[in-house]
Write a structure and sequence with these properties.
With about 160 residues, the chain is an alpha+beta fold. It has a single domain (about 1-145), classed as NADH Oxidase, CATH 3.40.109.10. The protein is about 30% helix and about 15% strand. Strands 1, 2, 3, 4, 5 and 6 form a 6-stranded antiparallel sheet that branches. Helix 2 runs antiparallel to helix 4. The mean pLDDT is about 95.
Length: about 160
């Protein structure tokens, strides 16, 4: 899978909308993520509203690229009805990685901005995009057509691998 080895965090985007078909494929990839006991704790808010993107860019340090992104996905975690709630944040992280990989596969670029578990940031995001009370924002992923693409660094470090015979 090439996307694993080509994906980088992209923080600047062309002033060009992202096609609905690409957004749907990204959402399909998100929902294809494995989850504990198949609980699928996710719901998604797709933000294209310029005012909301601007507001999201100010919820935490280093989120400013959100203001210039044509779209952002805010994956939210359900609070209720989970079979293994202690594992829901792991499920959400796997889901977010699928989103990032499909963004890359679609010829786009994006970046994951940490929201959870910082309750103050989660609350701000929820207020801005009007998240239902039974959901909590997990992350913000602004994305679009990259202005510039950088090669991924080779991070393989054999000293961190321990074989057990």
């Amino acid at each position: 899978m090439d996307a694993i080895f080509t994906r980088t965090s992209v923080r600047s985007y062309e002033d060009k909308p992202v096609e609905q078909e690409k957004i749907e494929m990204i959402l399909r990839a998100a929902m294809a993520a494995p989850s504990s006991s198949n609980q699928q704790p996710w719901e998604f808010y797709i933000v294209t509203n310029r005012d909301m993107l601007e507001q999201l860019s100010k919820v935490k340090p280093f989120a400013e690229m959100t203001a210039k992104a044509p779209v952002a996905i805010v994956p939210c975690q359900r609070k209720n009805g989970l079979r293994t709630p202690i594992r829901a944040s792991i499920d959400m992280a796997i889901c977010a990685e699928n989103i990032l990989l499909e963004i890359e596969a679609q010829g786009l670029g994006g970046v994951m901005l940490g929201v959870a578990p910082d309750q103050a940031v989660m609350d701000k995001v929820g207020e801005i995009i009007h998240v239902r009370e039974d959901l909590e924002p997990f992350t913000i992923i602004p994305f679009g057509y990259p202005e510039k693409k950088h090669p991924q660094q080779d991070r393989f470090d054999e000293t961190r691998v321990h074989y057990i015979p």
